[in-house]
Amino acid sequence: MTSPLPRRVIPLKAEPASALRAAERKAIEGACARLKALPGALLPILHAVQEELGLVPKEAVPLIARELNLSIAEVHGVVSFYHYFRQHRGGRHVVHLCRAEACQALGASALEAHAKRSLGIDFHGTTADGAVSLEPVYCLGNCALGPSVMIDDQLQGRVSAQRFDALMAQARLPASKS
Amino acid sequence: MSAVRIFVPIDAAARSVGADETAAAIAAEARRRKLDIELVRNGSRGLLWLEPLVEVEIRGQRVAYGPVGDHEVAGLFEAGFASGADAKGKAGHPKALGPTEEIPYLRRQQRLTFARAGITDPRSLNDYLALGGYRGLAAALEMPPADIVASVTASGLRGRGGAAFPAGIKWQTVLKAAGAQKYIVCNADEGDSGTFSDRMLMEGDPFVLIEGMTIAALATGATRGYIYLRWEYPDAKRALEAAIAAAYAANYLGENIQGSGSRFDLEVRMGAGAYICGEETSLLESLEGKRGQVRFKPPLPAIAGLWGMPTVINNVITFASVPIILDLGAARYQQFGSGRSRGTLPLQLAGNIKHGGLVEVAFGLTLRELLYEYGGGTLSGRPIRAVQVGGPLGAYLPASQFDTPIDYEAFAAINGMLGHGGIVVFDDSVDMAAQARYAMEFCAIESCGKCTPCRIGSTRGVEVIDRLVAGENASKQEALLRDLCETLTLGSLCALGGLTAFPVLSALNHFPEDFVKPKRASASD
Q: Which DSSP string corresponds to B198-244?
């Protein structure tokens, strides 16, 4: 008696994601194993991967696609749709600077210019010492106490240029790796 | 003698201006002075310009001090704030504000949905129960589903996310729809700039949201729920997950809730930075693990929502308003409000405002009363030139429209919208052409890409505004911009493309002088 053949997925490459380091691979496979039974598991998996690795590596895409039985295009489409998922390694700290109207009313544009000038980077860039990445964000929900930034997951309000510099100096202290 | 209770908010806004440091300083100073205190991390009262707002409970009354920086803590102890020496909270210290409930900003509000926020420790189910929590659910458990729905309908509650669709009608559709599995989905993707009521409620009183969703489940026969939360709210995530765990442990979630035989399971799912996922069909796509692209309607989510099943999808404040409706009765809730806008709306005063914060009042108050009597004018001290109500897709209103009452229909009548109740204030240094340009830029950044006018028209809109402001054949550019806005309005499936014309055209219509060259001298010069 023959049992029905399980559906086989033929990967495009014999071994997807072979460029990943072993630890990265383990993190991605771990997240998939832990979460893939959830309905709508893709976003929770991507969050888990980014939380652990700081990014969703390009090479993770075929691996996740295989685990969820999705196409590479589907997974890539989701990763690239959402602003939060990053495919390039950022700095030790990620600074999200609010560009939305309530912060604009209190000088967010000037703060943005100051941040870019003082860090020497544009949005999506990382400082040369690898300490800080700068990202735009559209509302942090701190609209009565703007301008606001979020450093890793800590919200900061009433951020003047001086306070921004102080926060950045603090973030650069060796002990401040969150 | 029992320990003095001292409250320091754990709300993200309070923490953003140093509440953690203040709390740590209070604990350290009390240790140093060998005083027995109980430090409670409560939600925020919503008087955000006074954060960190420290409260001391003396003989059952809470007195407030604010804003209290960590460097001021030793001075407060010196003035005797923790020993009752400053019991009226008026005498000894310049930061003393008197009894919290007597602060006019708070006293004049009508807090129904936010009745407990700022009072309790948000992680304490006992606090929640002690202050009337789960009375709405208890009432609902005695009612057949159709009666719960009828009660929500009779209350006049309309969707607080912005679209203002009657909640009871939506629930009725789900109740009547056939489906092997029904879902309750909470839209906690509060992306509108100027809004933070969802965040404050989830951080300050998460159990009321859980209770509201549980009542929705009983009313419609749903057994599974999701809270779709934006990633920008990590504090709300922690608060919700702690509250959900506590609700499971006390049998307010899970199987056989409070012996009723009904089941409801609830979990938090995180968004990933996409404004469009606040649109209900995009949100459902995202929950299903896909790109957050807008769906065609019909079918309505109430008929074919999450994974094609009947789904109630409502905003945080909508669900959180349900327990008090069931507790007090629909008739009582319905007494608040004006016209077809019933109940209360938690408004949010934001941007360049002196007294920014949360103001929950019955519909009917005018914008002017909010801006001046609550808000106290601008933070900068300059005149208010424009306010944007209803988020990035809301109209910019000039001073001549400040007498508009807070009422869904009254705002629609002036080509505006109340939306989620966010009010962003700008002083006279604002460049309205730059705000119009930003509205188009925002639409371009956040468009899901499904509809061509939104995906491409928004980028063209930025270019047209640039040429208009540069004075290149201005009358032709203006005609082109108006035509483009009409195309966006009529040719987009959802509110993002459909409403971007509101901020753009309101800026152009009410502040045309900002679009002509040479531009008026900027007030900041």
A: HHHHHHH-HHHHHHHHHHHHHHHT--EEEEEE-TT-HHHHHHHHHHH
Whether the predicted interface score ipTM is above 0.90: yes
Residue B82 — pLDDT band, cuts 50, 70, 90?
confident
Q: Does B432-515 carry CATH code 3.40.50.1240?
A: no
Q: With contacts defined as CB-CB under 8 Å, which chain A residues touch B435?
A: 101, 104
Q: Where in chain A is the domain with CATH 3.40.30.10?
A: 93-173
Residues B424-468 have pLDDT tens digits of: 999 999 999 999 999 999 999 999 999 999 999 999 999 999 999
Superfamily of domain B125-334, CATH level 4: NADH-ubiquinone oxidoreductase 51kDa subunit (3.40.50.11540)
Taken in order B325, B329, B332, B337, the sign of the CA dihedral is: positive
Cβ-Cβ contacts under 8 Å, B233 against chain A: 141
Domain over B338-427 is classified CATH 3.50.50.60? no
pLDDT in tens, A14-47: 556 578 899 999 999 999 999 999 999 999 999 9
Chain A residues with CB-CB distance to B under 8 A?
39-44, 46-47, 74, 77-78, 81-85, 96, 100-106, 137-146, 148, 150, 153-158
What is residue B267's predicted lDDT score, i.e. its pLDDT?
A: 98
Architecture of domain B4-107: 3-Layer(aba) Sandwich (3.40)
Looking at the complex, does the CB of residue B336 fall below 8 Å from at least one CB of chain A?
A: no
pLDDT in tens, B166-216: 999 999 999 999 999 999 999 999 999 999 999 999 999 999 999 999 999
d(CA B248, CA B255): 9
State the architecture of A93-173 in CATH terms: 3-Layer(aba) Sandwich (3.40)
B379 CB contacts (<8 Å, ≥6 apart)? A106, B352, B353, B354, B356
